[in-house]
Amino acid sequence: MSTIEARKITKRFGDFVAVKDADLSVAAGEVVCLLGPSGCGKTTTLRMIAGLERVTSGDIVIGGKRMNDLSPEKRDIAMVFQFYALYPALSVGENIAMPLHYEKISKPDRDKRVRRVAEILHLTEVLDRMPGQVSEGEKQRIAVARAIVREPNCFLFDEPLSRLDVELRHSMRGQIKEVLSNLSKATVIVTHDQLEALTMADRIAIMRDGIIEQIGTPHQVFAKPANVFVASFIGTPQMNLVKGKLEKVSGAKATIQFGGERVELEVNPAVGSLKPSEVTLGIRPRAFTPVSAGAKDTILATAELIEPMGAETLVHARTPDESDIRVVVPRDVKFKIGEKLHLRADPTQTHIFGEDGKAVRA
Amino acid sequence: MTSVALSPPAPDFKTIAPDNWKLAIVVGLVVSVLATLILPANAAFWVVGAMAAMVAASFVVNAYRRHYYGGLLVSPAIAVLFVMNIFPLVWSLGLSFFAYQSNQQNIRFVGLRNYQQLLTNDLKAPELWANLTNTAMFVVLTVAAQMIVGFLLAVLFAKQFPLRKYLLILVLTPMMLSVVAVGVFFSYYYDPTFGLISQVIKAWGGEQFILMSNKTGAVAGIVFADAWMWSPFVMLLVLAGLVSVPKYLYEAAAIDRVSGWRRFWTITFPYIRGLLMLALLFRTIEAFKMADLVILLTKGGNDTMTISYHVIRIANEQNKTSEGAALSYLLLFVVIVLTNLYLYIANRRSQGA
Amino acid sequence: MANTISIWERLGFRKASGVGEAGWGHTLFAAIISLIYFLPVLIIILTSFKLQTEALAVPPKLLPTTLFGLIPEQYVFSPTLENFTSVFSRAYVAGGAAESTGFDRFFFNSIFIASTSVLLALVIGTLAAYGFSRYPLKGNDTYLFIILTTRMLPAIVVIIPVILMFRISGLAGSYLGIIFLYTAFNLPFTIWMMKSFFDELSPDVEDAARLDGSSDAKVFFKICLPQVLAGLAATFVFGLILTWNEFLFALLLTGVDTRTVPVAMNQAVAGGGIGVLWGLLAAIETLFLIPVFLVTFFLQNHLLRGVTFGTVKR
């Protein structure tokens, strides 16, 4: 079966390190998303797997075979490019048939396979048109059709949906997911859109500055971010990250001081191993519950801006030490600007990050 | 852009006003024709010049009064082109209907006789016919050589490789040379005694090599020099096409395992087709006009006379002005046909794609 | 991707990686081809350092050095700068008699005629290009096409009446005549080139300036021109090269005093064979080549646009 393994791959362009010691393994039938902000090295990683860039060091292993020195032609992979890379002088049908010429099959067989794929992706009507005469969504499907028309080792997608508008993106996400689940090949998708990654991937690898920060299931990266970056990158609205001073931990209660205020929060028992130090407190906006009166385990903040989001309301509040806090409350909970809020955090969704930015967790 | 409401109304045709360009054209034409018929050539020239200036002035005043800024900006250029290109063109068209030799004073209207003479008698005369076939031969040989060499050079430079920029300049230099330098120094290289080609052949045990001694050699010498000089032009155009192919298409082709041959025809070629046609047009027209290299290398000897050189000779050296004019108009006709043929093909191609 | 580029990469020494890039092997191959292609020019340059006897030597004197003993002595010449000093000293010593080459005059003519006419064409042509670009007339493309065709015309079609015109008006053999002719010769090129540069400017800035009450003249001089300075320079230099190398018009229309270098060179070889001072000619051509070579180097980005009259942009 087809698997993809990247072992400690590094890519340098001159002095610039685009990817550093990235480890990634994709099982047969698994979909892994490389997620990160632009310039984080995710596309370079994908291109190294494809053979479009040479690795500076490390190994690329596809289907159990080391592929470092093989050109893309010899790796037997299919790839969907960010800008689709449709051949402008060929019709849609000829575009989809391009990968089949290698297999030296007869023209009727080739046509049959093209038509079958076109049916799956609803492209039958546009087969005779030129790429310049079809819509953006159709272009995207043509690119996918060209990839799935043959039986490659694995599939690579580079920002497949980035050029589509919001509505198309939504429907294409579902379609691609369905197509991929029927193919059951190792697949890597590069994206900068966390929603895309969370919905399409079996596992997500989050990258920053050429380094894979965390790999895990969508649930894991959301519920247990490994460090401050992942915590801030995944989830909307962004997780609240407040710097504070850990004073003491007794059992599951930690005393943290920020500003002039001291709060006692229920935290992961592993925090007990920390000495008193500067920590970052991470709490998702939806993990707060406003309570009527202040207590030892509540955080005080003043409402500054209120944004109704439909079913919920986003409240921007400010703590006495001038930290911004975002709170999402149900629609029926009403606040006024300038009102003092007492916020209690859900202990299972309270994260403590040490001085090195890594999550402290058992 | 032009505020019609503020512009003064156009003057009536019959009123004498500085911006009445319609009247100026009519008066100018009448006076010019009369002057050409009545006055001696020298005086007529100045009268026609004055009339042209009057028409131009009326255009400018008109454009200024009606705020045609486009017209105003363009007018100096049009004036220069009119004096140095359009007017001579009309003049030489006129000359072609007369019997006139620039070293003699008498001039006689002969109508289409010059053309008739050219198309019936002279074309059958072996000399002129040979000039035409020589020109056709040069066009075919030089353009073919340039297209092939230029294309191969472009392929050589299409990739990115170390020092590419510097090597490219070496190849581009011939195109930027003066044709005189090329002519002069190729005749140096072709010299039978101390020319390098002859010496190399002698060093390999051959005899003294006289390239220019017969027609084949002379043609080869001219074609070689011309192709050497102008292949870089074709290269530059083809190269522009080659580098305009987006890199991701080649990457997609690599992923799709497309063979080199198919990759060239389906991906690369569509990007260079238009530029190849453009190069073909430019070079064909230039080759058709070829005179300078022939003048410099053979002086038309060994049956290498081209039609262009022939016209220069009869018009300038033999003072057969009218015949030269008629012949050059036939040439112009061929160039226009070539240009339009190209445009027709180019348009049909772009519509088909 | 790379935000730091090493000096080697800037110079084009880059390690090959990925599709469409080749390595030093390709460089070697391309270098051999390029050098063969450049050989005729190289020989001209080498000849400019030879004395007459060396230029006509049999067997040929090929190089100024033995390349550490690789080349037999008989193929080696000792380089001299005599040819170069002769070009400007007005006295070339051949067989003892001092003889004026006159090439300082011809160089002056070439420079004066080319630069004046190209400058004139640039002023007139830039105005026209702006007009064509910003105030399109009815049938704009037709006018532009006709202007381009005037450049494509066989020179001989217009040359007969131009010769007659110059004879009648007394312009034959004068600077004014040839400058005026070259101005017309350069105009189509200048208009097409500059129009291609003006067309690339975004009209937003100009519209904004007009809304702010700037006059049309101010918009042109303060906003458009500064943006096309590079284009102006490229057009000027390309026009210079075209005029610099022009031969046919110059041959037929310049007199003894206004002769340009190409015409003078042609006359210097009129006798042909041994009487021609090849070393001197090579020195003249080498000097004549320097500006062209520099242009090719510095205008690489505009080269394509230049040779295709702005019809092809990169």
How are the secondary structure elements laid out?
The complex is a heterotrimer of chains A (362), B (353) and C (314).
Chain A: E1 4-13, E2 16-26, E3 31-35, H1 42-50, E4 57-62, E5 65-66, H2 72-75, E6 77-80, H3 92-97, H4 107-120, H5 136-148, E7 154-158, H6 166-183, E8 186-191, H7 194-200, E9 203-208, E10 211-216, H8 218-223, H9 228-233, E11 240-250, E12 253-258, E13 261-266, E14 277-283, E15 288-291, E16 298-308, E17 312-318, E18 324-330, E19 340-345, E20 350-353
Parallel strand pairs in A: 3-8, 3-9, 6-7, 7-8
Antiparallel strand pairs in A: 1-2, 1-4, 4-5, 9-10, 11-12, 11-14, 12-13, 14-20, 15-19, 16-17, 16-19, 17-18
Chain B: H1 21-38, H2 41-65, H3 69-95, E1 98-100, E2 107-109, H4 113-124, H5 126-158, H6 164-176, H7 179-190, H8 196-203, H9 215-244, H10 247-255, H11 260-288, H12 292-297, H13 307-317, H14 321-352
Antiparallel strand pairs in B: 1-2
Helix pairs in contact in B: 1-2, 2-3, 5-9, 5-11, 6-9, 7-9, 9-11, 11-14, 13-14
Chain C: H1 7-10, H2 24-47, H3 52-55, H4 82-89, E1 92-94, E2 97-99, H5 103-134, H6 140-152, H7 155-169, H8 175-200, H9 203-211, H10 216-227, H11 229-245, H12 248-253, H13 261-268, H14 278-298, H15 303-307
Antiparallel strand pairs in C: 1-2
In the CATH scheme, the class of the domain at 104-260 and 291-307 in chain C would be Mainly Alpha
What is the straight-line distance between the termini of chain A?
Answer: 35 Å
- Give me the CATH fold name of the domain at 104-260 and 291-307 in chain C: MetI-like fold
Order of helices and strands of chain A: EEEHEEHEHHHEHEHEEHHEEEEEEEEEE
CATH architecture of the largest domain in chain A: 3-Layer(aba) Sandwich
Domain count of chain A: the total is: 2
Largest sheet of chain A: 6 strands, mixed
Largest interface: B-C, 100 and 107 residues
CATH architecture assignment name of the domain at 104-260 and 291-307 in chain C: Orthogonal Bundle
Distance between the termini of chain C: 22 Å
Count of individual helical segments of chain C: 15
Give the CATH topology of the largest domain in chain A: Rossmann fold
| CATH level 4 superfamily of the largest domain in chain A | P-loop containing nucleotide triphosphate hydrolases
What spatial form of chain A do the alpha-carbon principal axes imply? elongated
Helix coverage percent of chain C? 55-70%
The secondary-structure element order of chain C is HHHHEEHHHHHHHHHHH
Count the E strands of chain C: 2
Low-confidence stretches of chain C: 1-19
Could you tell me the radius of gyration of chain A in angstroms?
25 Å
Total helices of chain A: the number is 9
